[in-house]
Amino acid sequence: MTRFYARGRLSVLAALTGLIASVGLFNGPTASAALPTPVSGATARGYLASLTVAAENRTGYSRDLFPTWITISGTCNTREYILKRDGSNVTTNSSCAATGGSWYSPYDGATWTAASDLDIDHLVPLAEAWDSGASKWTTAQRQAFANDVTRPQLLAVTDNVNQAKGDQDPATWMPSRADYRCTYVRAWVEVKYYYNLSVDPAEKTALQNDLSGC
Predict the structure, then answer these.
(1) 34, pLDDT greater than 80
(2) Which of 54, 62, 88, 192 could serve as 198's disulfide partner, Cβ 3.0–4.6 Å?
(3) Other C-beta atoms lying within 10 Å of the C-beta of residue 92
(4) What are the residues facing 67 on neighbouring strands?
(5) What is the three-class DSSP state of 88?
(6) What is the pLDDT of residues 69-95, one digit of tens each?
(7) Cα–Cα distance, 128 to 169 (Å, whole number)
(8) More reliable by pLDDT, 7 or 122
(9) 84: closest CA among 149, 18, 177?
(10) What is the dihedral of CA 186, 189, 192, 196, to 10 degrees?
(11) pLDDT tens profile 1-27
(12) What pTM value is reported for the model?
């Protein structure tokens, strides 16, 4: 049993469909992205200390083992839901596809007016999750993780920045915007803690260093 089941925090169904009101605002120069606020630095440091440290193993990984995107609300799938949540003045058509709006990418500080310029980033990448424990999950658990709109795990960012990040952890990749890094590592640790995922030694050291100033 992973922590998010054993502790009874949420069922898979709730993780898939439970929509929450935005509890925090990230203000950018011309737009704002509303997403779940990560835990505090102190809480993140406590969470990190409790995580299992283990080597990673990618044997058997396939992105297809993490079904995306699913219907979240009405006609909106996960991507469309996050685009609406993270953008300003977003307009959509009858199928929930974004037809207009403005999006601020917190990783690099760019603002976009075309949804096609945005990727929905899995803050803890799917391959990283597989490496650190998700290989033992059921498909339903992996689907819940890949479509989690409740924790700070999904956000709209510049597409080529997301592609450059790939499946890297904080030991080898961090957002170029230095003032977002504290938010990023707090969110990373919160997601790993909630889903009972391990960290590798280099990853833990990088997280400790970045959290020390949060």
Answers:
(1) no
(2) 54
(3) 17
(4) none
(5) strand
(6) 999 999 999 999 999 999 999 999 999
(7) 7
(8) 122
(9) 149
(10) -130
(11) 445 543 333 333 333 333 333 333 233
(12) 0.85
CA distance 154 to 177: 18
Contact call for residues 197 and 51 (beta carbons, < 8 A): yes
Name the β-bridge partners of 155: 121
Q: Please say whether the beta carbons of 90 and 100 come within 8 A.
A: yes
The tokens 């603002």 sit on which residue? 111
Q: Rounded CA gap, 48 and 55, in Å?
A: 16
Report how far residue 167's alpha carbon sits from residue 62's, in angstroms, rounded to the nearest whole number.
Answer: 12
Is-contact 156 82, C-beta < 8 A? yes
DSSP string, 89-146: EEEE-TT--EEEEEEE-TTT--EES-GGGEEEEESS-HHHHHHTTGGGS-HHHHHHHH
**Number of C-beta neighbours around residue 142 at 10 A:** 19
